[in-house]
């Protein structure tokens, strides 16, 4: 049996193993834990648990020192309260807590980005499917311990992740990435090593690059002015993937950085040791 931190409280239920964690970062060199919609659960695993899944989507499992962990991305749409994860043993339940995401009201000059016409909607549907195919993929990892992430570009974080957004007064889905205001042409680098699995110029996202880091961990970089990598190219941490721009639906130049874990968009800052 692994040794758990004293700040954890554990209850063994008749039908599941129920964990209640605090939301502070508890594990060096692993993502920060935050049990909220759009957050991450870092779950120590017993030796007899070899598989963890959510809605038939496999969950990333990694080794840190002598302990194995499941790293679970909590969907922004997750309901508060107990959320069950399936394993090859009894289910594991985590307790999802509320989080005070802000609202954001934006004025977009091009009305097509607020109410696209049928042709634009058809284009968006094709692009969304291509991205979803990447987000739902689960490739082997190339690392032995969870990779340390770095900032993809310089600039002050806007803390825009999870904000409920209104474009020209009309409500849209919560913001699923982190915006970093920066000048056009500033370098954007890979925050961790992986393989470039998506390159395109999308309707809403503009010029975009997606990187697969393994086991359902995907990063996406949008609104670029230039793309410096090719589809299928291995990329190392710190290697330039593109340049900051203002393509797609934007109100000014910035980098939109998304992180997807088990097909859930989660707060990218949770991957950084020093955000």
Written description of the protein model:
With 275 residues, this protein is mainly β. The protein folds into 2 domains: 88 residues, Peptidoglycan hydrolase domains (Immunoglobulin-like); 169 residues, Glucose Permease (Domain IIA), CATH 2.70.70.10. The chain contains 1 helix and 22 strands. The strands form 5 sheets. Strands 13, 15, 16, 17, 19, 21 and 22 form a 7-stranded antiparallel sheet that branches. The protein has a 6-stranded mixed sheet with strand order 1-2-9-8-4-5, with no helix packed on it.
Average of the residue pLDDT scores: 84
Would you report the number of β strands?
22
Number of domains: 2
Alpha-carbon distance between the termini?
33 Å
| Oligomeric organization of the protein chains | single chain
Provide a count of the helices: 1
What portion of the residues fall into strands of 2 or more residues? Answer: 35-45%
CATH topology call of the largest domain: Glucose Permease (Domain IIA)
CA radius of gyration is 19 Å
Major sheet description: 7 strands, antiparallel
Write the element-wise H/E pattern from the N-terminal end onward. Answer: EEEEEEEEEEHEEEEEEEEEEEE
The share of residues in helices is under 10%
Query: Low-confidence runs (pLDDT<50, min 5 residues)?
Result: 1-25
Can you tell me the CATH architecture of the largest domain?
Distorted Sandwich
- Overall SS class: mainly beta
Overall shape: it is globular
Write down the CATH class of the largest domain. Mainly Beta
Question: Any idea what the CATH superfamily of the largest domain is called?
Answer: Glucose Permease (Domain IIA)
Protein name: M23 family metallopeptidase
Signal peptide: 1-27
GO molecular function, one term: metalloendopeptidase activity
Domain M23ase beta-sheet core: 174-268
